Here is the input.
Amino acid sequence: MRRKYRIPVALFGQCLLVVLVAVAGSNEASCAATVDVGFARVDITPTTPIRLSGYAARSTESVGVQQKLWAKAMAIGRGRDTALLITVDCTGLSRDLTGRIKRSLWDKTGIPARSIAMAASHTHSAPMISGYLENLFGRSKHPITAEQQAHIDQYTKELEQKILKTALDAASSRRPSLLFWGRGRVGFAKNRRTQGGPVDHDLPVLKVTDPDGVMRAVVVGYACHGTTLDPADNVVSGDWMGYAQHDIEQRYPGSVAMVVIGAGADSNPFPRVGLTHAQKHGRRVADQVGRVLSRDDLRPIGGVTSARAGTVELDFARAGVEPLPYTIQTWVIGDELAMVFLEGEVVVDYSLRLKAHFRKRLGEDKLWVAAFCNSVPGYVASERILKEGGYEADSSTFYYGLPGRFAAGLEDKIIEEVLGQLRGFVKASATTRGESKD
Ligand SMILES: [Zn+2]
Here is the structure.
């Protein structure tokens, strides 16, 4: 074996059983212990016309449905180690909405907020949600009417109940499974501010199978906006993220595919705009997922061994206004993988800096950076982008109802909180790496 995978003594018998029933020749299954994992999904496609979020150019309620929208949940582990990942085909979620859902889940299951990550796909063709990006049509000649707002409020109310039920369904459907992770690359994300500017083309993939190797689910991450579709097409769609999920589920019948967006706030899909491009980008993600899943070097992983969350205050450049509370969440999966869940539309500099930091210390990539998670209060610019100015640093703040740009210093604040939460992971991971060399 190229590397060690430590199995607790209590799990050894279970692992032996897994080995006995594993598909012959499956290198992955041969040394992995099972983890209880459950999945559920719910259709969240609006059933009546509704104003769509994402593009300020649209002037009426939606005129049709091009593709269904989904909320999906994955529950990993048991007892105190349970973690819930929830993905939602929507432009963004508000802190109020996710806060209510997390509190309900705590009441009903005892799963704490730090162990629940809620990721918005950031499709620009999903319904407006109460409390999120409410100023999108603030300069429009076609602001939201009282009747349209009532439709949005009703949709949001139903969405909250559906997400809650799906999370509970996932928790109650847990059964022994095997987890693996690997990484591919896809190149359609392009820096939308600077020709040839920085991008993150990593495609982290989490694979979940039955103990006998039958595919149960795929979670895939990619750092790119959901802006392939034409704003003139006022129809409901999951954009490339929706097509990626659809294609993966088609290729692995009975499986659940979930997409988590990385720090792609300043990346657009290329080429765009139009339906065929969205379909092609989705297919490229599914193709690359297929290639990653067929490799024999996927890392077996266990459940979430540590979940943390911390809030930092992001100051605005304008004097006399309250800072924005900004929550950073991290999950550690043994010494194999750390997942970072950042709020907001996070620009690529954050993931590149974090990954470089960990790569330098660990000698390999063990970090999965997700953004648009838990809530999306606005763009989260880096110091570089604050200096450069432009949409992500300045003009986007109007749509988010923020009191202007952030003050310098936010990047270090966020990075330091992530590093602080993952200090133990770096230590454990470096130790294991050292042992493996012996
Ligand atoms: Zn955006």
